[in-house]
Amino acid sequence: MGIQPKVVGLGCGTLDILIRAEQLPTWEHNTRFEAISFDGGGQAATAMAAVSRLGIPAGFIGTAGNDNAADLKLRLTERYGVDLSRIAHRNSPDDAVVIVFVDAKTGERMFFGGGRQGEVPLHTDEMDREYITAADYLHLDGLHVEAAREAAQWMHAAGKTVVLDPGTSQGKVWKDHLTLLPHVDVLIGGSGFGQALSGQKDIRQAGAKAIEMGPRIFVQTEGNKGCYTITPEDSFHTPAFPVDVVDTTGAGDVFHGAYIVGLAHGWDLRRTAQFASAVSAIKCTRIGGRAGIPTFDEALAFLHTRGIDPDNGKHAHTAER
Ligand SMILES: Nc1ncnc2c1ncn2[C@@H]1O[C@H](COP(=O)(O)OP(=O)(O)O)[C@@H](O)[C@H]1O
Ligand SMILES: [Mg+2]
Fold it and tell me: Does the pLDDT at position 268 exceed 70?
């Protein structure tokens, strides 16, 4: 029954319909789009697609409906080798479908979404404890919060690591997600998250507050301005890599997956942040949340040409993008 993943993601998996355009239509004026693409999305599911593409066995746990959208969303995740053997099926249409409008000028995106297939959340009884705790990392995005909290506690009882993507949603912090923090080791939020969580303007002070709530590593990503890492011992900024940006959809999700891969390789936090920044920058060069995710070799080659070698020469670089 599938592979045994080293990393398990639990949360949101969507079908994304991406439309890249200079201008959107209005009720009065029609417009044409420049490109359209179907890709899988959702924070936890896309992070697992990245983990798997980067060479580490991954599994995704969440829910799926019973219609064409559900079939396609699952197929677009399976394609990356992500194990879906523990998906819980719902006898209803899949509402986790998102229309993503991508600004052709900047590559920035906005979402036009339905639900997140969380209406009938994953129940604790639907989870396979052995399967989850056999992994080294559990990655959560706050969806199915009751099940997520239970799974995080199982992981800690097994001495394993829990990572959380708290989502940002325009600087709002979801109350539900706060209940997860005591069970989280690595907290990676998007722009404005630390400030909204802590009430502190300064990112280092915000990070220090976040760490008091449970996690031992706090990272905040800031799009093309890079990311900040804060731990009890250290704090530093990692710049983003300039690339020809086509679509930033999923940059944060892919960053999370790549970050876990860095940790799994035993790299220090500076190297891990550089690796995750490289992988997410390369992702931004193609339309779709996942289509641009590089392989491990491609990511190392990208870093290598910029004078960075996270792996200390352990892997040969065979490809360049
Ligand atoms: N325009 C960009 N150019 C280069 N790298 C980017 C760009 N946008 C995002 N990234 C990389 O992806 C990471 C996560 O992106 P971010 O935009 O903060 O997440 P989100 O997808 O939540 O908006 C950033 O820290 C950066 O390393
Ligand atoms: Mg962004």
Answer: yes
What is the C-alpha to C-alpha distance for residues 130 and 127, in angstroms, rounded to an integer?
Answer: 9
Atom nearest to 251 CA in ligand 1: 21
Range of the domain at 267: 7-304
Residue 315 within any structural domain of the chain: no
CATH number at residue 168: 3.40.1190.20
CA 191 to ligand 1: nearest atom: 18
Ligand 2: distance of its center to the CA of 36 in Å? 19
The fraction of the chain above a pLDDT of 70, given in percent, is 94
| 318 band by pLDDT with thresholds 50, 70 and 90 | very low
Does residue 317 lie in a domain region?
Answer: no
pTM above 0.90, yes or no: yes
Q: Is residue 321 part of a domain?
A: no
Q: Is 240 in the pocket of ligand 1 (CB under 6 A)?
A: yes
DSSP codes of every residue in 94-134: ---EEEEEEETTT--EEEEE---S-SSPPPGGGS-HHHHHT
**Any idea which ligand is nearest the CA of 245?**
1
161 within ligand 1 shell (Cβ under 6 A) = no
Which residue is listed with tokens 């980067």? 54
Q: How far apart are CA 220 and CA 127, in angstroms?
A: 30
Q: Tell me how many domains the chain contains.
A: 1
